């Protein structure tokens, strides 16, 4: 198939669907441009941000922090009526997320207890995001530490994080903190002993998701790159093996748990962006007719991926020499429009409506049923337990 010129897609989409999402929107281009080292992590974040419950929690937390900042913290126009309204909102969301203990705690609290109520609700909901949805809540509001401990859900070593934020008072020690687009490192050394006290590197993922970076592997970074990559590869293959001596945390603790596992598709970054666009388009379209929704989607993808047409006998023969045994070839929309009308009847869009429906269902399962969590904490059966597995999820 001729290389598709994506620059024309925006004009096409604007002409036919001026008020709809567009495949060329920045959100989908950003997915295609994610760095490979953090792609899986960012992909999980994209899924989580589309989950209805996650959005409900994030929206309520944003509202509560804003309300606290504008009204409660400065004690401005906050009377008993406002207190009762806010308390009702807090009780409702705690009830909706089945946080019974927290719900009971605020039942009989009064106006004077407003800061405690806000703290309890914030901590409860942020914990729910962290434990169930793998999302880490963040904000940059200076006052928020009065009702929220920002260091509570730090993935990495909390003592190390604290040290990296403080000045060293010991004159016998020297430290270096380095933050770059790929990793964060903290190095601290004893001058007299000429030895490291800390020498730790963490991945610098840009998304606020749990990273499960809980495995420490000691490395000599002076060794050649191929030696280090070989060593890490051996560890990873052994960890994925069903007879591995390396344990998942649940197995090590002797806790049996049952989480279904589904192989994720081996997709390119561009294909993942397509899948997200399909899901978003169907969720956000104002069209109520499911048939026309899929027809419009198919038109968009046909502009991108063309039509499928049977090869001629000569084309089949020539392609077999290239080990291509397919009976069809892909042609662009431009070439399709030049075909004779009798030939057009046997030509079909490369992306069928059934394919679009299957892709939407696949995305819906990952998002609404929280299967996206397998991207960063996957499991497979091993010795009666369910533990980590890592099928490929993208290619460049």
Could you explain how this protein is built, in words?
The longest helix has 21 residues. Strand 8 and strand 9 form a beta hairpin. A three-stranded antiparallel beta sheet has the order 1-2-3, with no helix packed on it. The chain has 396 residues and is mostly helical. The chain is flat, with a radius of gyration of 27 Å. It is built from 16 helices and ten strands.
Low-pLDDT parts are 257-262, 381-396
In whole angstroms, the N-to-C terminal distance is 20 Å
What overall form do the CA principal axes indicate? flat
Q: Rg, please?
A: 27 Å
Oligomeric state of the chains present here: single chain
Label the structural class: mainly alpha
- Largest sheet at a glance? 3 strands, antiparallel
Count the strands? Answer: 10
User: How do the strands line up in the largest sheet?
Assistant: 1-2-3
Question: With helices defined by DSSP (H or I, 4 residues minimum), what is the helix count?
Answer: 16
Average pLDDT: 83
Strand content: 5-15%
Q: What is this structure's SSE topology?
A:
Layout: H1 9-16, H2 26-32, H3 39-48, H4 52-72, H5 80-96, H6 100-107, H7 114-133, H8 158-164, E1 173-179, E2 183-190, E3 195-203, H9 225-240, H10 249-252, E4 267-268, H11 269-284, H12 290-305, E5 307-310, H13 313-320, E6 328-331, H14 333-337, H15 341-344, E7 348-349, H16 353-368, E8 380-382, E9 385-387, E10 394-395
Parallel strand pairs: 4-10
Antiparallel strand pairs: 1-2, 2-3, 5-6, 5-7, 8-9
Helix pairs in contact: 2-11, 4-7, 5-6, 5-7, 11-16
């Amino acid at each position: 198939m001729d290389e598709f010129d994506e620059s024309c897609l925006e004009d096409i989409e604007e002409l036919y669907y001026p008020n709809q999402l567009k495949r060329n929107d920045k959100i989908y281009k950003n997915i295609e441009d994610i760095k490979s080292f953090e792609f899986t992590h960012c992909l999980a974040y994209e899924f989580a941000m589309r989950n209805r419950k996650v959005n409900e929690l994030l929206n309520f937390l944003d509202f509560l922090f804003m309300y606290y900042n504008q009204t409660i913290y400065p004690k401005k126009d906050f009377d008993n009526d406002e207190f009762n309204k806010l308390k009702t909102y807090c009780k409702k969301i705690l009830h909706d997320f089945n946080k019974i203990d927290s719900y009971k705690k605020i039942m009989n609290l009064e106006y004077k207890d407003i800061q405690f109520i806000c703290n309890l609700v914030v901590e409860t909901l942020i914990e729910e995001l962290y434990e169930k949805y793998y999302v880490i809540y963040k904000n940059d509001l200076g006052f928020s530490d009065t009702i929220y401990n920002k260091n509570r859900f730090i993935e990495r070593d909390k003592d190390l994080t604290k040290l990296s934020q403080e000045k060293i008072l010991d004159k016998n020690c020297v430290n270096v903190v380095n933050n770059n687009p790929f990793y964060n490192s903290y190095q601290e050394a004893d001058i007299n002993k000429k030895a490291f006290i800390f020498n730790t590197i963490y991945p610098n993922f840009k998304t606020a998701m749990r990273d499960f970076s809980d495995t420490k592997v000691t490395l000599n970074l002076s060794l050649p790159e191929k030696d280090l990559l070989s060593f890490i590869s051996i560890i990873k293959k052994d960890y994925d093996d069903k007879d591995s001596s390396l344990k998942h945390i649940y197995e090590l603790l002797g806790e049996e748990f049952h989480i279904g596992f589904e192989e994720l598709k081996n997709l390119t970054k561009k294909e993942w962006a397509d899948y997200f666009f399909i899901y978003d388009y169907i969720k956000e379209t104002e069209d109520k007719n499911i048939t026309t929704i899929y027809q419009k989607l198919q038109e968009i993808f046909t502009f991108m991926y063309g039509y499928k047409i049977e090869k001629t006998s000569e084309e089949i023969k020539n392609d077999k020499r290239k080990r291509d045994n397919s009976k069809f070839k892909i042609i662009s929309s431009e070439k399709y429009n030049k075909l004779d009308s009798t030939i057009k009847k046997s030509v079909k869009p490369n992306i069928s409506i059934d394919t679009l429906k299957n892709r939407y269902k696949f995305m819906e399962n990952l998002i609404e049923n929280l299967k996206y969590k397998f991207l960063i904490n996957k499991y497979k059966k091993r010795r009666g337990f369910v533990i980590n597995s890592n099928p490929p999820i993208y290619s460049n």
